[in-house]
């Protein structure tokens, strides 16, 4: 029981060392990362660019209009009759056209709409990746804090064992071997404490860099901790959700639809086009010409249809169709490959969470057993049936089990998020559900 009190004290000291300011929740740090992380900002800018690129595809089915104007001045000299005449010419024309039947342009417009879906899936994927990166950094800091606290608690316990060995040696109830073994173990724990301090410092710098804060402080886990279980408790149900939710599958599906429309564009090379054209122009000659003196003004209006039918293009169209059909087949194979990869990743993530929960239960039992073993060895050492090294080994086993248990709990929590990332259902709302877990 004494070691438990020492551990509780060390954990409190470690928390005070690691969290001198108000702690932030996982959701709050994720929101900070959205405003700071360069990778997310790059993905968002790319998404905006893809939207504007998709809008450009509408141009091929919308009217086109233009205005042209010009002014010129001419000088004429004649010998019979002798004389010189200067005249000016002013003109302006407005023209417009409307595609009536251009299958290639319409296919391009449809591709633009699929590009919007593709851009949306890419942005969702980037957002899920940011959630995982923030969560990983968040739990890394918590794990480093716990490791430091456990090492400090072990240092205190080993220090007490070293003092006891020295006292027993002085009164002649133990050998110098006990003292040297305790001193060696104490020096080793001091080295581990230095490494734990540095690891915590590095993990905090990584989290600070990701979220754009100078002293990001994660909220510790609640105690006692109740780990959530995957719902639904069926890997096939998670895989089924991925068909509609996974951004990877959505991207592959959009690429297939874009390639199919590319085939339609290639086939349009054999089809006619029909456009509606219209123009209206004004021409003014203020000073007249040598043939027709006096000011002149001419208004010209025109409207008509333009029809074009391709007859032969040197087999370019036929080979373009063959090319796009091959690319369409490739996109279809890529979609099927993506489905299989997502299904495999989802199942692996699901079983990883289930296995992690089993590991947590096993480590909890091992922690209780290690605690009982330590108390038994201490009692045996006091009555002389155990030696100092037995107590030291029991202490090391207990604190190593505690570190493994803490890490296993973080792995399970992160595994839940990775499971949702694997099947594409991960959102920021999942982080808000962790608030009830991440509070001590």
Strand content: 5-15%
CATH class placement: Mainly Alpha
**Structural class assignment:** alpha+beta
Order of helices and strands: HHHEEHHHHEEHHH
Low-confidence runs:
1-20
What is the number of beta strands? 4
Helicity level: 55-70%
The CATH superfamily bears the name Outer membrane efflux proteins (OEP)
Explained architecture:
By secondary structure, the protein is α+β, with helices and mostly antiparallel strands. The chain has one domain (2-62, 122-270, 313-436): Outer membrane efflux proteins (OEP). 67% of the residues lie in helices and 14% in strands. A four-stranded antiparallel sheet has the order 1-2-3-4, with no helix packed on it. β1 (64-79) and β2 form a beta hairpin. α2 (26-36) crosses α4 (103-171) and α8 runs antiparallel to α9 (388-423). The radius of gyration is 39 Å and the shape is elongated. Mean pLDDT is 87; it is low at 1-20.
Describe what is shown at a glance.
Helix content is 67%, strand content 14%.
Descriptive tags:
440 residues, alpha+beta, Outer membrane efflux proteins (OEP), 4-stranded antiparallel β-sheet, elongated
Lay out the secondary structure.
Blueprint: H1 2-18, H2 26-36, H3 38-56, E1 64-79, E2 82-101, H4 103-171, H5 176-211, H6 235-245, H7 247-267, E3 273-285, E4 296-308, H8 316-383, H9 388-423, H10 428-433
Antiparallel strand pairs: 1-2, 2-3, 3-4
Helix pairs in contact: 1-4, 2-4, 3-4, 4-5, 4-7, 4-9, 6-8, 7-8, 8-9
